[in-house]
Design brief:
This protein is mainly alpha-helical. It has five helices and four strands, in the order αββαβαααβ. Helix 2 crosses helix 3 and helix 3 packs across helix 5. The model has no long low-confidence stretch (mean pLDDT 95).
């Protein structure tokens, strides 16, 4: 067993804690640079918005590259009750992330 497999064995339901925590940690580290980059396009995006948008952005990229993950399997199967719960949570996270983004006036 490789070290990455060892780290991914710890799960909450079907979701690996390591992958989720790693994604949020990476976004937390990169968010100041991303905010500075987007400020050049006239957008003020706070760190909290980046954290709220982490999962919705990840879902978009997983859809674009056709990656199969436990969450993507839930999001693509409307026969499961988790389908509606997962989409509701993603829509809420998207709303919370987008509501704090402001256009830089000046």
């Amino acid at each position: 067993m490789t070290s990455i497999e060892f780290l991914r064995q710890y799960k909450i339901g079907p979701f690996a804690i390591f992958d989720t925590a790693g994604s949020y940690l990476l976004v937390l580290i990169l968010s100041p640079f991303l905010s500075k980059l987007f400020s050049k396009f006239g957008l003020n995006i706070p760190v909290s918005s980046w954290l709220w948008l982490t999962m919705p952005i990840a879902v978009i990229f997983h859809m674009l590259f056709k990656q199969s993950t436990p969450l993507m399997k839930i999001l693509m199967n409307p026969k499961l009750i988790q389908f509606f719960i997962a989409w509701a949570i993603l829509l809420f996270m998207t709303y919370m992330g987008l509501k704090s983004i402001h256009k830089i006036v000046g």
